[in-house]
Amino acid sequence: MKMVTAVIRPEMFDVVRAALEVEGINGMTVSEVMGRGAQKGIALRFRGKTMPVELIPKVKIEMVVQDADVEKVIRTVRANGRTGKPGDGRIFVLPVESICRVRTDLDDPADP
Amino acid sequence: MIDTGATAFILICTAMVMLMTPGVGLFYGGLVRRKNFISMLALAFIAFALVSIQWVVFGYSLAFGTDINGLIGGLEYAFLEGVGMEGDGIPDLLFMAFQMVFAGLTLAIVTSGVAERIKISSFVVFGLLWTTLVYDPLAHWAWGGGWAAQFGALDFAGGTVVHISSGFSALALALVIGKRLGFGSHGMEPNNIPMVLLGGALLWFGWFGFNAGSALTADGLAANAFVATNIAAAAGALAWLCAAWIRGRPGSVGIISGAIAGLVAITPAAGFVTPMAAIPIGAAAGLVCYGALLFRVHRGLDESLDAWAIHGMGGIFGALATGVFAAAAIGGVDGLLYGNPGQFLIQLADVAVVVAYSFGATYVIAKIIDAVMGLRVTEEEEYVGLDIAQHGESVRV
């Protein structure tokens, strides 16, 4: 199992969520976060002066999926979260050791 | 001769109407995305401050100075020359201030059309030109002895001057400045609905001063306006609630929008109709404005916060309803329902002229400002949000 974390533009979230649902990816944890990439945010220019906006609002989606689904999730987020401009975000894939359900006493590694 | 009771009442009404301007700011601020919340509030304060100075320098005189051909007032009251502590019932200074808070509020409503994308510098220039070239003449026509007043058009507290003008001006401005980035594809849900409701509550509260105070004295007519105002607001809220419920869920933003629709529609009528007439006026206004909002969304127009649907269309409906429901027993003039169809036709003509003038003049002013200095922020600034881009501040650090 893998944890796929996608940090994307907030305005693209609804489209990405709907596309993931179509692919059968329903479980997710979503947070509103602030962040920046290699450009260190955005520099706004006023009459020759620059004003840095160092942290930009983003949405972080965390999904735990079977190894076989990782590529599909990445492809879906890329296809639906992209504007082509800097700031479209990142996708991180991490290994997951185990999953424990809170509702029951079972550990359920086969069903994230 | 100064009447101290009337003076005390209008002083309080003036302060209540002032509170409507930040009320509009909170209402609009809650409706936009969080990155533009401060911007909407700030635009309301800028509108009020700008118009306050314009009004005492020459705006009041243009609206209420000696009539020139029915179109505009003279400049004899410029810099408040001759506007003093004496007056007819209330001090002239107080009448000037009461009218000033109306003018400031009207410009704040117009910000609906440019939400989340206007440059402050351009808004300041626009506001000064708009209030001088659109608001001041309209105030003169209706209340300053201009052609509409001579013609017999009824507008108790500003259905044409405040609401039709702000609504259609917001629409013109929205057409010139263009849609927000991502309009129609990105989610643009309200960021803070309790704040919308708080702003709406301040509007409802201030509207008592707005309409009752327009009697310009503390008497039975003021009481009639006060009661009719509340009835229309309540009827509008319930009508919108039911309409939205039939189509899905009774959202709280719709309930307060319906109340404002009722308040807008009763504004021109409050001193001319019976309190019971406020029920059909308010309820129908809720439905008319809800329909206008659906039409606006269907057409893909980004008049972002619905000043056109609620103030513009509600104002038209209210001005026409005044011609229908006016009762001589209340304000001295009968309407269509009491056997005077002529009044309805007068209202219709007044509405047509005000719609055409406010939309046309605002369109031209906006086009000129757009060509000279640009109305809109850059794409990057719009993306980051005007709170940071224009003010260097944000709701959440």
Automatic annotation (TrEMBL), chain A:
Pfam family, one: P-II
InterPro entries documented for this protein: N-reg_PII, N-reg_PII-like_a/b, N-reg_PII/ATP_PRibTrfase_C, N-reg_PII_CS
SMART domains linked to this entry: P-II
Source taxon at top rank: Archaea
UniProt record similarity statement: Belongs to the P(II) protein family.
Protein name per UniProt: Transcriptional regulator
Organism of provenance: Methanoculleus oceani
Automatic annotation (TrEMBL), chain B:
Keyword annotations: Ammonia transport, Membrane, Transmembrane, Transmembrane helix, Transport
GO cellular component, one term: plasma membrane
Example GO BP: ammonium transmembrane transport
Transmembrane region(s): 6-28, 40-63, 93-111, 123-144, 156-178, 190-210, 222-246, 253-271, 277-295, 307-332, 344-366
Tree of life domain: Archaea
Subcellular location: Cell membrane; Membrane
Major subcellular site: membrane
Residues in coiled coil: none
Membrane topology according to the record: Multi-pass membrane protein
Ammonium transporter AmtB-like domain segment(s): 8-394
Keyword Secreted: no
SUPFAM superfamilies per record: Ammonium transporter
Family the UniProt entry places it in: Belongs to the ammonia transporter channel (TC 1.A.11.2) family.
PANTHER family per the UniProt record, alphabetical: AMMONIUM TRANSPORTER MEP2 (PTHR43029)
Protein name listed in UniProt: Ammonium transporter
